[in-house]
């Protein structure tokens, strides 16, 4: 009953704020999906849902998101902006700069879409941890989120954030009430693999991270279904610009390092690393180094809690 009340209040607030055409960035993640369903219920055909493929998405992400929105009966436009994002991020290695560039390019893409549909409003799935970590409310900046600290000053759209005061567990509860397929989907950062590839964002390095992430996701899901461990709240791989000596066959090679990260959490504000069984970690390591032979020769497991570390590496 309480969750339904939150849903009703959010819809009423959206109806009071949006009196013209609006667009929403839909990543397929739980935050933007909940925001999209709420906005669709509030303003119907005034809402234009857009999915931006930045080139930093997970494996098969674009196809899965399109299918999910089709099942919900919501029209979704897919915009392939990958070349634009790679070009703007060429040579950028500072994580804060990455996030700000990604935030700006997201807005530029939506300003282009605005011209096509005449939108006056931009709906975003910003939740409380996003603006808290971005320094909202006189807090120190932990890291800018692309949809908060990464936004440019000259945004030409009125921004509406229906989930701004909610935490991740509350958003999940709303998603379950709305019967959204992604209600139990693990979190995925808005900048995507751009903040899981530390250092240069070349297409080759991003593809390596995408493959490593896919392996981690599949193997931990398999382990959980077999009862070997609980499924972590969030689990992924990051590619580090740390090269070390390895051996492939009889050859001595230098390769990069993949770090596996898996945590348990309630709302993402704090987290503990997940105690993954060694045999599962071993199989993940073997599969990653085999799949990325010649490029990655070392896999490590991150056992840092939050705090002191954040969940994502950038």
UniProtKB/TrEMBL annotation:
Report the EC code(s) recorded for this entry.
Answer: 6.3.5.2
The pathway entry for this protein reads as:
Purine metabolism; GMP biosynthesis; GMP from XMP (L-Gln route): step 1/1
Query: Could you state a single Gene Ontology molecular function term?
Result: ATP binding
Catalytic activity reported: XMP + L-glutamine + ATP + H2O = GMP + L-glutamate + AMP + diphosphate + 2 H(+)
A cellular component term from Gene Ontology for this protein is: cytosol
Q: Which residues are in the GMPS ATP-PPase domain?
A: 1-187
Its top-level enzyme class, in one word, is ligase
Top-rank taxon: Archaea
Question: InterPro entries, from UniProt?
Answer: GMP_synth_C (IPR001674), GMPS_ATP_PPase_dom (IPR025777), NAD/GMP_synthase (IPR022310), Rossmann-like_a/b/a_fold (IPR014729)
The record's section on Pfam families has: GMP_synt_C, NAD_synthase
User: What are the alphabetically sorted keywords of the record?
Assistant: ATP-binding, GMP biosynthesis, Ligase, Nucleotide-binding, Purine biosynthesis
The residues the record assigns to binding ATP are 27-33
- Which PANTHER family does UniProt cross-reference here? GMP SYNTHASE [GLUTAMINE-HYDROLYZING], GMP SYNTHASE-RELATED
Explain the purpose of this protein. Answer: Catalyzes the synthesis of GMP from XMP.
Question: Quaternary state and partners of this protein?
Answer: Heterodimer composed of a glutamine amidotransferase subunit (A) and a GMP-binding subunit (B).
The name this protein carries in UniProt is GMP synthase [glutamine-hydrolyzing] subunit B
What species does this protein belong to? uncultured Poseidoniia archaeon
């Amino acid at each position: 009953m309480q969750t339904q009340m939150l849903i009703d209040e959010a819809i009423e607030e959206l109806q009071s704020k949006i009196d013209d055409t609006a667009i929403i960035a839909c990543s397929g993640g739980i935050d933007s999906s909940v925001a999209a369903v709420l906005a669709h219920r509030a303003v119907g055909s005034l809402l234009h849902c857009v999915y931006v493929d930045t080139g930093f998405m997970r494996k098969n992400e674009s196809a899965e998101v399109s299918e999910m929105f089709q099942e919900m009966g919501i029209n979704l436009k897919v915009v392939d902006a990958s070349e634009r994002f790679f070009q703007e991020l060429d040579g950028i290695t500072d994580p804060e700069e990455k996030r700000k560039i990604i935030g700006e390019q997201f807005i530029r893409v939506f300003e282009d879409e605005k011209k096509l549909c005449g939108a006056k409003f931009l709906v975003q799935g910003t939740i409380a941890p996003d603006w808290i970590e971005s320094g909202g409310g006189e807090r120190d900046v932990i890291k800018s989120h692309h949809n908060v600290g990464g936004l440019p000053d000259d945004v030409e759209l009125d921004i509406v954030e229906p989930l701004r005061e909610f935490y991740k567990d509350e958003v999940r509860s709303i998603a379950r009430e709305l019967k959204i397929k992604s209600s139990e989907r693990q979190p995925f950062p808005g900048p995507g693999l751009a903040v899981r590839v530390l250092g240069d964002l070349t297409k080759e390095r991003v593809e390596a991270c995408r493959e490593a992430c896919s392996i981690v996701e599949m193997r931990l899901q398999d382990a959980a279904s077999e009862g070997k461990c609980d499924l972590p709240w969030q689990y992924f791989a990051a590619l580090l610009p740390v090269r070390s000596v390895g051996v492939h066959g009889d050859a001595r090679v230098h390769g990069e390092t993949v770090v596996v990260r898996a945590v348990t959490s309630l709302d993402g504000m704090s987290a503990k690393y997940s105690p993954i069984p060694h045999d599962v970690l071993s199989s993940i390591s073997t599969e990653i180094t085999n799949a990325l032979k010649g490029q990655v020769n070392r896999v490590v497991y991150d056992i840092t809690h939050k705090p002191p570390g954040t969940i994502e590496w950038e």
